[in-house]
Amino acid sequence: MARLRCDRTPAWAQLQSAFAGTGASFDLRTAFAQDANRFERFSQEAPYVFADLSKNRMDAATEALLLNLAEQCGVQEHRDAMFAGDQINTTEQRAVWHVLLRNPALAPVSTAQDATQSGANLRAEELSKVHATLDAMLAFAETVRADTAITDVVNIGIGGSDLGPQMAVLALDAFATTGKRLHFVSNVDGHELAAKLPHLRIESTVFLVASKTFTTIETMTNAHSAKAWFLAQGGTDTARHFAALTTNVEAANAFGISTTFGFWDWVGGRYSLWSVIGLPIAIAIGAQGFRELLAGAHAMDEHFRTAPLARNLPVRLALLDLWYRNFHGFTSRSIAPYHSALRRLPAYLQQLEMESNGKRVDAQGDALPFGTSPVLWGEPGTNGQHAYFQMLHQGTDVVPVEFIAVKKARHPLKGHHPMLLANVLAQAQALMQGKVDAGGHKHFPGNRPSTFLLLDDLTPAALGALIALQEHRVFVSGSLWGINSFDQWGVELGKVLAKDIEPRLASGDVSGLDGSTAGLLARLRG
Ligand code: F6P
After folding, report:
1. CA–CA separation, 478 vs 88, rounded Å?
2. How confident is the model over 423-442, as a mean pLDDT?
3. Is residue 246 classed as helix, strand or coil in its secondary structure?
4. Residue 91's pLDDT band (boundaries 50, 70, 90)?
5. Cβ(409)–Cβ(396) below 8 Å
């Protein structure tokens, strides 16, 4: 598979010229005035998601150059290699195969290249394991749901073993039918677990210990404390009250958990909500709902796999992201979900994009001469409007905003939803149009770009499609930048240093530490 880093393609130089020409001074208001069909030209349907890209600083000529860039970088070949299960995570020699978790059991595995019979056999074998595990996990979810003695489910996990299930459980609250309380404990900060325990009873609680590796210090510490609490309260039936979701079933058994659901090293932590890590989601919305979530994601996978680049939504979003990051120099993107159930989506997307693409070297280990992952941040609308939108409208930096709105409300309160929708439309409009007739403090420069993603309804399938869309967009950005989006070495150093520091907090030994760390450690002991 031939990959070419974006800055080494002919299209890159052409984009530089385009930016120096009309790109830098592009004005959205002029673009709309000159093109009555701009909305149609820059909007599109994808499965469950309608996207309006027209309020972005891009014309047809620039988009054509960006599409050439994608071709020249080998994005399609790279995508096909991911779907085929090739080891595209090259620093860890692993496949990146979360799409397989969404592949229907009976359909042939979706891949453009079926190069060898043995490759096809491997895919069929993995797919049958995927579905056997999925069936077992969903059967367990239904058992828990039907068990009236169980009132509380506590997921203990962090990063991908927390953010995905937590985000989805909140997002799909309208589909939660069991009446069980779902809790998420992630932080090693004992305040989190300690605040939960007094409200739990051993006979009515199930703890899910979610960890791909089953070595993550936060999760292990919380799991040990939960087990100690359970035993101290007289609990004995750990098989009933503890389950492990992990690729490391041996470690879970050694920990004393016999109810285990496994997955595979080719599922990255931040791509794992589709695996057994999604058990809390299945407990909340049921097996059928979980299958619908997978089906929505699969529909987006098929769109990504088969749509021509020019009508391929993840590709178009990633190309815009690159245009903003590497040509306009914008350093962040604000996520504005206008739906309170999507309140953990910004946090989820932070891990997805920043852990995937926050890299300073390319796949060969060579330093990159251009910027990679933007900072992602945001809050649900309309709350953000009364906090930081001032900066978005009148600050010195341009921050592209991604609005996410849902047409249908699933509550009976009159008047709220039209008001919410009016606000999201108005914010996108205000950012673009500005208010140029007013001077001084009341001047809004406008020409501030935004993307608008619209769902008809926040169903399990629509959420699945929305998340798969984001995964694939991150894939394409990383592909263009020539990086490995699937490792996360950057989180390791802090883990190693924490291990060294922890015993020093007890002993007071500051030898070899820098002055600041030594000084702070002494104050913490004092
Ligand atoms: O430290 C980062 C990380 O490895 C994430 O990539 C991952 O989602 C998280 O920790 C949790 O890892 P695990 O599921 O193995 O406990």
Report:
1. 12
2. 93
3. strand
4. very high
5. no
Q: Is the CB of 161 under 6 A from ligand 1?
A: yes
Spell 483-496 as b/e; 16+ CB within 10 A means b: bbbbbbeeeeeeee
Instruction: Give Cα 385 to chain centroid, integer Å.
Output: 23
The predicted pLDDT at position 179 comes to: 82
Compute φ and ψ for 327, nearest 5 degrees.
Answer: -115, -55
**Cα–Cα dist 268/120, whole Å:** 22
Among protein residues, the one whose CA lies closest to atom 3 of ligand 1: 159
Q: Is 286 in the pocket of ligand 1 (CB under 6 A)?
A: no
Number of C-beta neighbours around residue 232 at 10 A? 9
Q: What's the pTM?
A: 0.97
Report the amino acid identity of residue 216. Answer: T
Q: Which of 355, 379, 402, 471 is catalytic?
A: 355
Q: Is 77 a catalytic residue?
A: no
Q: Are 405 and 455 in contact (CB under 8 A)?
A: yes
**Residue 149 contacts residue 233 (beta carbons within 8 Å):** no
**Do the Cβ atoms of 432 and 449 come closer than 8 Å?**
yes
Residue nearest to atom 9 of ligand 1 (CA): 159
pLDDT digits (tens, 9 = 90+) for 365-395: 999 999 999 999 999 999 999 999 999 999 9
Write the CA distances from 410 to 339, 415, 416, 417, 458, integer angstroms. 11, 13, 11, 9, 9
- Averaged pLDDT, 120-138: 92
